[in-house]
Structures are given as C-alpha cells and as structure tokens.
Amino acid sequence: MSVRLYALDGCPFCETAAEALDEAGVEYETEWVEALHSDRNEVKRVSGQRGVPVLVDEERGVTMAESANIVEYVERTLA
C-alpha cells in the first residue's frame, strides 16, 4: 500500500484526515500510534516529529502532518 496514515484512536484531527481519504476513495493503511508522545518513535522516524495525523504517500514521495494540509493534499492530488 503506497498511502499510510499514522493516527491515534479517538483523535478528531486523525478522523478528519481519514474521512478525507475515505471520501476520495483512496486505499490506505492506518498505522495506529501510542497515546504517549514519547512512544511514537515510528512517527518521528518517518516525519521528524511525534504529532499525528501524518500521511505518507510513498508513490509520490510525500510525508506531511496537520489534518488541514492532509485534507487539501487528498482533495488536490489523490481524489
């Protein structure tokens, strides 16, 4: 799968990003992260920070954070 969303269960910003992907019909894999920032080593490895959501589009070489940015990217590029 070339699109991956790093998300935290119950996070409204993560839900917004996931809804944008769902509405655009994008196939993606969700990587659920730990609640503690200090335990989010995988997110830090791929994005340089520990906040979520983070979208990784391997096919296009794009990694981004912030739900508003993700929604805009999905609507402009993946939809």
From TrEMBL:
- A Pfam family matched in the record: GST_N_3
Residues covered by the GST N-terminal domain: 1-79
Q: Which PROSITE patterns match?
A: GLUTAREDOXIN_1 (PS00195), GLUTAREDOXIN_2 (PS51354), GST_NTER (PS50404)
Q: Which domain of life is it from?
A: Archaea
State the name under which the record lists this protein. Glutaredoxin
The top of its lineage is:
Archaea, Methanobacteriati, Methanobacteriota, Stenosarchaea group, Halobacteria
